[in-house]
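Hi L., both proteins are below.
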Amino acid sequence: MVKIYKFGSFIREFRIKKDIGQRELAKKINISASYLNDIEKNKRPAPKLEILKKISKILDIDFKYLNDLASISNKDIAPDIYEFIKNKPEITSFLRILKESDFNKSDLSDLEKKILKNKTKVLIVAAGLGSRLKKHTEELPKCMLDFGGKTLLQRQIDAYKQNGIKDISLIKGYKKNKINYKGIKYFSNTDFKNNNILNSIFYAEKIINGNIIISYSDILFEPFVVKRALESNHDISIVVDIDWRGYYVNRKEHPITEAENVIFNSDNEVVKIGKINTGRNDVHGEFIGMLKLSNKGAEIFKSHFNRCKKLYWNKPFHRAKIFQQAYLTDMIQELVDVGVKVNCVIIEKGWKEIDTVEDYRKALVEFK
C-alpha cells in the first residue's frame, strides 16, 4: 500500500534524506526557522506557491506532487492550479461547461487521456557500454552508430517526430559527450558501469509522468511501431512482436535463448516476461524494448519501483543477482505478480535489435 504523507512530514523526511539542516533550508527558501519548524510539525498549512517552487528545487521533489500535498494540507485548490486559473480567467468558461455538463469521474478521465495523448513524450535509455559490439563502440555509444547516413539515434528521433512527438529526453552514460543533438533534454547515469537499464531509467524520474514512451536506444524501428504504441489506451503497455522468430535464423552471437519473451493471455495481458522458455502452446512474442505509460501508469510504475528499491537493494530481484542489475523486464514481471495489468501492443516485424557485431553487419547490408 502506498504511504500517504502529510505535507510537513513529507518535507521533513526529504530534508533529512538530503542532509540539510532545518535552519539551512529555512534560510535558502527565505522564511524563519520557527515557521519551517511549524510546517514540518504540521502545525501550519502548506506555504504559498513561491515557497513551494524553492522547496521543490532545493530538495529535488516533483513539483506537481508537492502542490497536490499542499492542496490536501490546506483543504483547498492546489497552489499551482489556483495560480493558473487566476492568471487565465478565460479558463472559467471551460470549467463551467464541465460543471454544467455534469462530467463524472469517468468522463474526466477520458478527457484527460485525450489531452495527454497529444502531449506524449519520449525517454530513450542510452547509458550502456554496448560491449558486445566490440570495436564499433570503443569510441561511440551504440546509438551513435551509422546506418545509411544517419545514426541509430537519429532514425529513432525521426520515427518519433513523424508521429508528432517532439518532447524527447535521453539518458546518457558511456561516452556521453558523443551525444549532442539539439532539442533533446539530457540526463546522466553516473553509475552506468554498475547498474542496468531499470535503474538507468530512474535517473530521469522527474519527467516520468503524463503520457510517455520509454525505449531502448539499440533498436531500429519503423514509424508505425510508435503509432501502434500511441493507440494504446491502457495505463501500462509494452510493444510485442509475434512474428519474431525469423530474426533469430542464423543469429549466432545473440541466440534465441536470449530473447526477452512474453507470454500473454487472451486479453493481451502479460503473464510472464523475460528470458524464459516458452512452450509450443503458449501465446507469446518478443518484447522489443518499448514501454508506454499513461499518467496513471507512470505513477504506478514509479511507486512500485521505489517500493522494490527499498526492499531489494543489494538483494536478488527476479532474474537479477541484485536489484541494481535488474532489467526492465524484471520490473514488468514484478508488476504482473502483484496484480498490475500490463497490456501487449501487438506488432508483426518492423524493428531490429542492434546488440552484436553480427546484428550491426547484417543491418548495414540491408541499408546498402
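That was the first. Here is the second:
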Amino acid sequence: MVLPKQLKKTHVRILILILLIIISIAIGNFIFDVLIEKPHIGIIKIEGSISSEAKKDSILELIETTKENKSIKAVVLEINSPGGEAAIIEEIYLSLLELRRKKPIVASIDQLGASGAYYIAIASNYIYAKPSSDIGSIGVISVLPEEEPLDENTITTGTLKGVGTPHKELARQIQMIQESFLRAVIFQREGKLKLSKEELADAKVYVGFDALNLGLIDALGTKEEAIKKAAKLGRVSNYEVIELNEEPMIKITISLSVDQSILNSSTNTVPINYYLYLNPEK
C-alpha cells in the first residue's frame, strides 16, 4: 500500500523531532557531566597516632578546605587510629563540630577507633565500624615529670622550675581532661548510649559488635556503606567520591597510645588504649 505524500511528510517530521529530542538529551547529559560539576562525597583519612603539630595541621587544613568547598556535600571520616595528644584531639573534635554544622559527617572505623580517635568519631552524625574493630578506651594517660638534676652550672628560680607541675596538680588536670572526654561522649551519644559514666570511665575496649549493642556506634558496615549513608544525609544521588588526603601520612616518631602487642594479648591485665596526654614539658 502506498502512503499519501502528506502522511509520509508527517512521519518524517515525527522522526526528525524524535532525533532532535534524543540529540538534545545527549547534549544535556554531556553538559551536565562535563561542564557542571557533580556533587562530591569527601573522604578524610585519620590514621596512626595523632600526636604532632604537623599531623594536626594537616587534618585541620583538610577539614577547613572541606568546609569551604561547595561541591562537597557530605564527609566520611575513615578512621584507623589509637588516638593522640589531648589538646590536638580536642582541637580536631571542635573543628569537626563546626564542619558538621554545614555538612553531614559519617565516621567509618576500620581496625581501630580507640581513645582520642573515638573522641574524633563522636563528632560525626553517624558511626560505622566493623564487627572486629576495637572501639572505646575512654580515658587519659600521662607521664609524670621528673625533676631535672641540678649542677653548679644550672640556676633556677622557683621551687617547681625543674618539674613544671606538681604531681597532685597534674593528676587533677588529667582528671579534668578525662571528665571533658566523658561528657563529650555522653552528650554526642545521648539517647543511644547504654553504658553509665562509671562504666565509660573504666576505659574498656569493645569489639564492634559489642560497641553496637552498647550504643558506642550506630551500625556495623564497611566504608562503602558509610559513603552511601553520607550521600543520603547530604541528599545527593548522582555523586562522585574524592579522597581528600592523597599524600602519604606523616611518619610519627613518638610512642603510640596503644601498644599493639598488649592489645592482641588475651591474658594481659594492663589498661590499654588510653587517651594519650603528653606533658608539654617533656
